[in-house]
Amino acid sequence: MSAISELSTVHRVKAKTPEEKRLRAKEAARDNKAGYLFLLPWLIGLVLIVAGPLIASLYLSFTNYSLIQAPQWVGLENYARMLGDGRLHQSLKVTFIYVIVGVPLQLIVALAIAMLLNEGMKGLAFYRSVFYLPSMLGASVAIALIWRQMFESDGLVNQVLRLFGIPATTSWIAVPEYALWTIILLHIWTFGSPMVIFLAGLRQIPGMYYEAASVDGASHWAQFRKITLPLLSPIIFFNLVLQIINAFQAFTQAFVVSNGTGGPADSTLFYTLYLYQRGFGQFQMGYAAAMAWLLVVIIAAFTAINFFFSKYWVFYGD
Amino acid sequence: MALNRRQFLIGASGLAAAATTMGLSACAPGAPSGGSQGGGEQGGKTNLALAWWGNPTRNKNTEAEIQAFQQANPNITLAGQPGEFGSYWDKLATQTAGGQAPDIIQMDMAYIAEYGNRGALLDLAKNGADTSKFIEGTVDSGKINDQLVGVNAGINSAVIVANPKVFEKAKMDLPDDKTWTWDQLSQVAAEVASKAGVPFGLVGNFFSADPMFGAYLRQNGKELFTEKDVGFEPADAQAWFDLMMKFQKAKAIGTPQQISEEGSTGAGKPIDQAAVVLGKAALQYYNSNQLEALNAASGESLKLLRAPSLAGKATERKAWYKASMLWSASAKTKNPEAAVAWINWFANTKEAADIDKAERGIPPNAEIQSYIRPKLTPAQQEVAKFIADIKPELATTPIAPPPGGGKLAEIMFRYETEVLFGRATTADAAKKFVAEVKSNLTV
Question: For residue B118, which of B145, B141, B92 has the smallest C-alpha distance?
């Protein structure tokens, strides 16, 4: 039914005689060589640009490295220091709120808009592009700057509120209690890419299911719950995993909105922003590398939990 | 498509080598090929890389200075690497880590110990830097562990900039900055704010300015930093936070929201959006060499005022000449002589002063200072007069922050925000503030 369900069935044709087996092995080896050759550009990139630095950062996480002097081995000291680092805990808190609140809200909005667009309206391509646009711009510096100005005390948001007679003077980005929510709002606004994926998934649900349900007298809500959600669940799962991984790594918005400080009073101190401050602001690259590896573990754990629970709610249809 | 292992390996290593070279050269945008960072020598000619941060005026000036210097020293060519202050430090750290630091580096007081203490900077005095005509106290700012690793490129002083239009609107005279105390500053700021109907008498980020905290500490017999430690106690920080709350309750520095929105002095709004420029504030903390940019942004002629004193006597306010920036050289430069030649040329020749005037601050060389003064713009002349006037008020020059101490202002502002929003008491915030600054020091 969907691309994902097809992938889940792996086809294997078994060789029958020993002669055939050898022939196949030879053929496979030749194919493999060509395959590796075509893979080479990517492989070099992986080794030099990804794997090399990755291993280097794992090494650096066990050192005291100021960027200027050679790294000194300190064992697990960086990891031990994390336990007592109050700002690290604050940055974890901020990032968890962002992920746990922002991602589901964004997916709900994305699904809602995708269902609207799936009604087959005129000018669909245009609307789809318009709704997709924010997700291309959302992580950009320009949008974050505009966001900052919109939520200032004399910003657009308060001006609109004043039009409705609300005497709004709050500077949403300057009060520790509100600042994070403006960034979560920015995250929700960039619902474009999950929306496009939802739209593709909705297109794959055969219309006859809905027709049959209508004939049986099912309401729209019942149709949504009993047909759309189960059949869309692999897509929801895919979006959820991807968006959680992305959200944990959010950086640009927080950096620009708070001018790189994570302020006011560390209320928008995202994990990656703190990592950046440690590494490049305070020349503690070893500690920053250790933080990066903690983030890897956290993201891996979230993904594993997601996969574990997926068997209870994701329906692959075959 | 047969490919044996050897062929494969040769091909792969060739590609890998090519990729590495491309990667390395990509690390130094703006630098010409040929490894100028290392100070290559070709046919008797020395190539040096010169990095600075700045603004459009400074970029134009520096390019002109490079031309003039090259004419005077035909054997040296300089490749400029202009940058923005924010990204400059990330880039410099990465370049230094890769052994590719520029030969000549425009340095800031907040970072000089970071590099100097780790052996990344050249001892300039040993390599012939000439600071013999510098005014007293202007050489020491560049000394780390008794080595001269930075030569003052221009003198600065922390000031309070006043907008006369706002005082006019309040029908008030400018205060007498030679006799005012901290309490009088609060009274003046509160009065002008209410009479002129502006959000700030004094912009609240005054209390996040480390030179102002430094002045307050020095008047109390303390310092921001000693050579290897923080120079004050939690009680001193608490007194400073209490003073801020006193100002805030007197309605002298705006509401907590307004202060937070304005941002700290380091990561606050750019000059063209500054409250004192927009007429939303009567007084704001700045450095003296920023007056010209402030005037240009506001279209007014703003005035420079001294920081207050405890005693009500300017001569007891323990002022100092700050290096607005310094010239340093990489310890790894292949041609220390040529690097120092630029620094000497910049500091001690009329030619250089003719181009730079006072854009990087007032020249610390006494002869150059008096030579250039008549040639300055009106705003720069005012700055030069101010710098000369405060000479009797100078005390010792504070040492550069030890490694890891460069972020004091940012940390201080964070704890002040906690206090302003009632999320922490001044005592609690002060204790945590001192602990955090201490834990960041890496000496």
Answer: B145
What is the per-residue pLDDT across A26-59, written as a single tens digit (0 to 9) for each? 777 777 888 888 889 988 988 888 899 899 999 9
Cα–Cα distance for residue pair A194/A201, rounded to 1 Å: 10
What pTM value is reported for the model? 0.82
Residues of A in contact with B3 (CB under 8 A): 33, 37
User: How many contiguous H segments (helices) and E segments (strands) does chain A have?
Assistant: 16, 2
Residue A140 near residue A190 (C-beta atoms within 8 A)? no
Question: What do you get for the CA distance between the two ends of chain A, in Å?
Answer: 8
CA–CA distance, A90 with A290 (Å, rounded to integer): 17
Closest residue by Cα to residue B329 from B314, B344, B319:
B344
Helix or strand run (H / E) with residue B79 = strand B76-83
Tell me how crowded residue B140 is: count the other CB atoms within 10 A of its CB: 18
Q: Which of B421, B278, B276, B196 is nearest to A154 (CA)?
A: B278
Q: All domains of chain A, ordered by start, with CATH?
A: 1-60 (no CATH), 79-313 (1.10.3720.10)
Number of domain units in chain B: 2
Asked if A141 reaches chain B (Cβ–Cβ under 8 Å), the answer is: no
Of how many residues is chain A composed?
318
Mutate to test the interface with B, among A63, A283, A284, A287 (most CBs of B within 10 A): A283
pLDDT, tens digit, 9 for 90 and up, residues B54-95: 877 788 899 999 999 999 999 999 999 998 877 788 889 889
For B248, residues 6+ apart whose C-beta sits below 8 A from its C-beta are B204, B254, B256, B259, B420
The domain of B270 spans: 158-318+407-440
